[in-house]
Structure formats: C-alpha cells, structure tokens
Amino acid sequence: MKNVSFVVPAYNCAATIIESIDSIFDDNFIEGDEIIIVNDASQDSTAIVLKQLKKQYPIIQIINNEENKGCPATRNVGIRQAKNSIIFNLDADNILERGSRIKLLTFMQDQQADFVAFGEIHFFREGKDKITHKWVCKSGTWSLADFLAGMCVPADCFVYTKASWEKIGGYWEYEKGLHEFWGYVLKHIAMGSKFATLPHSCYYHRYGMQTSLFLRENYQSQNISSLMATKMIEPFLDQIEEEDKNYILSEIGRKTWYDNIEKRPIRVKNIGIGEKGKVILTHEEKTAITATKKQSSKQFIKQIIKSFLQNTGLLALAKKTFLDYQLYKNDRQLKIGFKKDIRTLKSLSNQTVKRFELNDNDMHPCLTDKTSNTNFDTHYIYHPAWAARILQETKPEYHIDISSTLHFCSIISAFVPVLFYDFRPADLRLSNLTCASANLTNLHFKDNSIDSLSCMHVVEHIGLGRYGDPLDYGGDLKAMNELQRVLAAGGNLLFVTPIGKKAKIAFNAHRIYTYSQIINNFDKLKLVEFALIPFEITDGGLIRNAPPELADNEDYGCGCFWFKKEER
C-alpha cells in the first residue's frame, strides 16, 4: 500500500493539536508515511506544543510561516513539501478514528479514485465520546449535481493524490479560508477528478465559535458565505442549468444562493438535482433539546446563574455572602454594630464631596472578615510558592503541569510557557498558557518526553470520585507510575501531596501518605529536595530541605518533593 503525507495546518491550536496528532499514531501511521505540520504564525502557545510533539514523535516535520498566510495557503505550503504521492488532510482540531488510513486507501484503490473522503462526520464540542450530531453524506461516487444538492458534504479530512492537487492548481488562497474545503472539492469534481465517499466511516469534527474558521469568518460580514461560494463556482457555471446559473448571478442570488442550498439545490446540465446527505441528531442531543424546551424560564435563568457562578469562581463568594446575611439576620449584636457603622459612614459622607451612592438597598454585609491576621490555607499558599522558586532555579524552556491549582499555572506563565492539563479542562485564557484535557492515570505523552513536570496536591484525589472520576483504590499508584514514565532523563518532577505519620483515606476528600510511601512509589527517581509545610502555622511555614522525621509528627502536613530522573 502506498505511503501518505499527513498535512496539518496549525494556527492557535495549542489546546487541540496534540489530540489530533495522537490520532494519527493510533493505528493510522506506517513506516514511510510523513507528518508535516505548518505553523501559520500562531499567536498562542502552539509553537511550544509543537516542540513537545516533536519530542514525542521525532518523525514530525515542522514548517513555520513567517507571517499568517491563512489556512488554504498554509495547506499548499505543506503539500508542496510532501514527498509521498498521496496526501491525507487533517485539521489541528479534529480527530481520526482508529484504522481510518487503511480503510480510506483501500477504498481509494478499489474505486480507482483521485480523491476520497469519510462518509460521515461526527460533530462534538467537549470530547469525541459526546457526539452531538452527524452528517451522513451520500455514499460512493459523486457528481457535481450531488455536491450542489445540499449543505451536507464532506469536509476537512480527505485523502487525494498529489497529482490531482497539482492538476487543479491546489487550494484557492482566498481570504483566510472561508469555504476552502467546499471550494477545493468543487474544483476537483468540476475539473474531472473522481471523488467518492466511503460508507460507514467517520472522523470526529470539533466545532464551536472558538475553533471553527468557517464560523469566525462567516459572521464577520453579512452574506459573505454565499458571495465567497459565488466566486468559487463562477468558473464552472457553464455546467449549471441556465435558470440556476442566472439565479446564482442575480443581485439577490449572489448573496443568498449558498445559504439557501438546502431549500433550493442547484441543478446541473443533463443531470438535474443530485442526491444529498442528511443530518442526524444523537439521542442525547434530542433529549437535551426537548428538556431545554420544557424547562421554565425561571428554572432556565436559575441554571444559567448557577453555571455562571461556578465557571467564574464566584460560587464560593455567593455562599459566603449568604452566610454573612444569615449572621446579620440572626446575631443581634452584629446587626446593631453593622447598622451603627452605616450611620457613621453616611455621616462622614455628608462632610465631603459625595463620590458614591450609599443606599440601604445595596448592603453587602461581610461580617466574618474582621480578624487580627489575614487567614490563609498554608497548603495552597506555600506549595505553589515552593514550586515557583524551583522553576526560577531550573529555568525550563517550557513547563507542563498536570491538574495543580490554577493559581500556579496562571502566575508562572508570566515568566515560563506552561501547558496545563486536567481531567476537567479549564477555560483559562492567558498568554504563554495553554489548557487542555488529560487523564492522569493514562497520560497521552510518550515515554521519557517531558523535561519539566509538576503535579501538586492532585494524586491524593485520584480514584475517590470527588471530581467525577471513576472509583479506583489504586488510581493514585497508576498516576504516580504515569508521572515517572513520561518524565525525561534529566527531567524534574515537582510533586506535592498530604503527608503524615499515618497513611489513610479521608473519603472522599483525599488520601494522606507517609514520607516512605512517596519515596518508595517514586523508586525510579532521585530525590533532590523534600520540603514540608506543617499543618500548624506555629510549627513553621515552608521548611525547605526538611528532615523526613518532621513529617512523622504531622497528621495532615503537606509534603513537597523535587524528583529528578537520572541520565542513562
């Protein structure tokens, strides 16, 4: 079977491209294939992620555009460099199914086709295991009439000969890429390439405003979708029936014909209207839509407010505010004192220029904050401070963090690029920071591939179900083994966990380990430093290079371990 060249354009795709490239190596790559990634002058952490991918898969070729060329031009750049005669398109936010390569190439050979595509597109937002809907395209060979029969046509993932790409002049380099795939397939079919789709095959298409080039460009200008499609179909209007040709070229048609193609398909000479595909909603999506429709407006608003509070971190603040109001209502002395303070402040405001409104309706009592000292959680203040100091010493080119507190990755990204991975990915957007999904008990990184790694106050939770993960008594051991596996020779691991004199599970909050348990579990690594954060603040704050015996005095201390994998 012939070798293929996978060509992947990459623009601001730091959060998605690892999963896409991993899907190539998941039973879709053979010796002699090549992978060409073209970084189109990305402005996020894509370049850093590509370095990590290159370390995992040295066979990857990376090309860097000096300026942002747009997706079609970037695709052409990669294809020109391809050495193999077959091109396999994959976008940096989409995912291949296992075994796709051999199925498509076998089908291509059997059909003696120039260009083949998947018969189905499975759309998802959160993960490919949560499909929202499917496009089921016409199976077999396509005519131009089939392609112009409706919106449900193949997109993104294609396999075609490099000779056919050369024959049609490659991708049209219009704008940044609106309708690039639609126009590319149109050119192939209209210029005589044999195009066919493989039935009962699919790839996974990520969609949404943040990832879809089509949506980003289409919503920038009214009617741009049909206007771009008009520009692309004009060279082939001699193949269109006269009435439909005039409709496309009319003043109104130019702006609307493509968007209305489902209701008014375009007829081709000697064929008429072709066969079109269909959109299928999954059962879960239908159920969700039905539930949403049945939900009262009051319930819906309540749900939206709760979701907003959770997603913005304000839920804890809302709970505190509620408790403060309860104190205000039920504690007579607090209530008297609070009202006295209001009267005093109003009196003071009358003696100067008023700059703010001060009304009883805007009261927001904070009655539990009058403390002699500022209280803080010693575990979660000191351990990120310890880790940040070590990173300042080691000065890595970039750092990978698995599920530690978001305060850590967000702050250290100010001085070192950070790739943050969590079982529940965070929608945190900062320069030098990329957030994506990972399963700590089955990390997608290659053996010995990460130079600078941290996982702090995390492993003690694995397998206890607290964060929606499955119950697994030995989940923590799997996680620790994974951290050792992916750490590169000479690499540094910063590991933090509760520690004490007795090993136990406080279900379902966390585990507490003994010092010797952690050392024994990380037997493939060398300990560089042990730091202890005692539970009682009077016993000290952050104790670097602490004697291990101190941990045996704790019930719930915080152990900070700096491990290193020795060079071989």
The chain-level mean pLDDT equals 88
The helix/strand class is alpha/beta
Could you tell me the CATH topology label of the largest domain.
Spore Coat Polysaccharide Biosynthesis Protein SpsA, Chain A
The CATH class of the largest domain turns out to be Alpha Beta
What can be said about the biggest beta sheet? Answer: 11 strands, mixed
- Helical fraction equals 25-40%
Question: Rg from C-alpha positions?
Answer: 29 Å
- What is the overall number of helices? 19
- Which consecutive residue ranges, at least 5 long each, have pLDDT under 50? 209-221, 307-315
How many domains is the backbone divided into?
3
Task: Give the CA-based shape.
Answer: globular
Q: Tell me the CATH architecture of the largest domain.
A: Alpha-Beta Complex
Q: What is the CATH homologous superfamily assignment of the largest domain? A: Spore Coat Polysaccharide Biosynthesis Protein SpsA, Chain A
Name the beta content range: 15-25%
Number of strands: 20
